[in-house]
């Protein structure tokens, strides 16, 4: 693996690479307020061992990438959605297999619709349709505990107090756990990694959520041409499983893989055998 800070169009984006540089690229796109640490090294390595170049990266305002003042992002949703293309260009151009989770799944859908020539395959995890439908999908809302996390959040800590910052970042994830349970030691370990390498945790936990949605109008999921795999936790409290099924039904030829007991989260280690096998098999298509 090799971490690198790319300077692209006046923006710094931190990427990491696993596997052979000549292997097909699998670009991992994390969720809102998530740096690359949530794609665990061992998870990335397992995909790389199957003959892929695996590239996770830090979104703007996460990890070591460019940071803006808290509450005042210096970029747009469109910038976030086109950063993967800038990264691919910097790494040699061409196409990639996109794996997007939650907000990252929305970004992956947008790229597949607007730049289909850059997408070899699409894998959407724990996410929801990012474009409107011609009909009301009737998708269920988040669980009450998730809604409460947004409407009545815990007070932010003193971000200069490392222990308090790690505790806060750990607890932020708790409402999103599924029936498989909340692995607090693992979450705390990842939270500590994130706190220790992030330029501004205050910006990281805020700025993605104040961006205005600038998705293009008129886009439809049935216009996605990339072979698509949808994986979704059966107990996702943010996007209940109907969201994943809607994606699989509206994207022509998409395959749906349920993840038993998983919530709204990166696939936990208990599911890596299933998830890694599915991603490796899916990315053999082109």
Structure in words:
It is a single chain. The two termini are 24 Å apart. The mean pLDDT is 96. The radius of gyration is 18 Å and the shape is globular. α1 links the parallel β3 and β4. α2 crosses α3 and α5 crosses α6. 32% of the residues lie in helices and 16% in strands. With 286 residues, the protein is α/β, with parallel strands linked by helices. Strands 4-3-5-6-7-8 form a six-stranded parallel beta sheet, with helices on both faces. It has a two-stranded antiparallel sheet with strand order 1-2. The chain contains nine helices and eight strands. The protein has a single domain, classed as Rossmann fold.
Helix coverage percent = 25-40%
β-strand amount: 15-25%
Low-confidence stretches: none
Shape: globular
Mean pLDDT: 96
By oligomeric state, this entry counts as single chain
The gist of it:
With 286 residues, the chain is α/β, with parallel strands linked by helices. 32% of the residues lie in helices and 16% in strands.
List the helices and strands and how they pair.
Elements: E1 2-8, E2 11-17, E3 25-29, H1 41-48, E4 53-56, H2 77-90, E5 96-101, H3 103-114, E6 119-125, H4 144-151, H5 162-172, H6 184-197, H7 201-204, E7 228-233, H8 241-250, E8 255-259, H9 272-282
Helix pairs in contact: 2-3, 5-6
InterPro entries: AB_hydrolase (IPR050471), AB_hydrolase_1 (IPR000073), AB_hydrolase_fold (IPR029058)
GO molecular function, one term: triacylglycerol lipase activity
Protein name: Alpha/beta hydrolase
Features of the shown structure:
286 residues; alpha/beta; six-stranded parallel sheet; two-stranded antiparallel ribbon; 32% helix; hydrolase; Alpha/beta hydrolase
């Amino acid at each position: 693996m090799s971490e690198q800070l790319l300077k692209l169009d006046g923006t710094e984006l931190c990427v990491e690479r696993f596997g052979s540089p000549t292997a097909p690229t699998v670009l991992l796109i994390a969720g809102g307020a998530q740096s690359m640490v949530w794609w665990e090294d061992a998870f990335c390595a397992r995909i790389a061992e199957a003959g892929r170049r695996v590239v996770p990266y830090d979104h703007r305002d996460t990890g070591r990438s460019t940071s803006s003042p808290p509450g005042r992002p210096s970029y747009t949703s469109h910038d976030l959605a086109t950063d993967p293309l800038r990264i691919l260009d910097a790494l040699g151009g061409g196409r990639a297999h996109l794996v997007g989770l939650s907000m990252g799944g929305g970004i992956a859908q947008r790229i597949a619709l607007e730049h289909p020539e850059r997408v070899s395959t699409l894998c959407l995890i724990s996410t929801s349709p990012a474009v409107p439908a011609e009909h009301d999908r009737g998708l269920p809302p988040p669980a009450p505990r998730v809604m409460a996390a947004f409407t009545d959040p815990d007070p932010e800590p003193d971000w200069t107090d490392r222990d308090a910052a790690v505790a806060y970042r750990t607890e932020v994830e708790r409402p999103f756990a599924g029936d498989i349970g909340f692995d607090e030691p693992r979450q705390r370990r990842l939270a500590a990694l994130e706190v220790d390498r992030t330029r501004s945790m205050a910006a990281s936990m805020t700025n993605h959520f104040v961006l205005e949605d600038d998705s293009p109008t008129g886009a439809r999921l049935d216009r996605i041409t990339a072979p698509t795999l949808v994986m979704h936790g059966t107990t996702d409290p943010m996007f209940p499983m109907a969201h994943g099924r809607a994606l699989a039904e509206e994207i022509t030829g998409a395959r749906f893989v349920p993840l038993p007991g998983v919530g709204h989260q990166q696939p936990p280690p208990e599911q890596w055998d299933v998830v890694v096998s599915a991603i490796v098999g899916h990315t053999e298509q082109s």
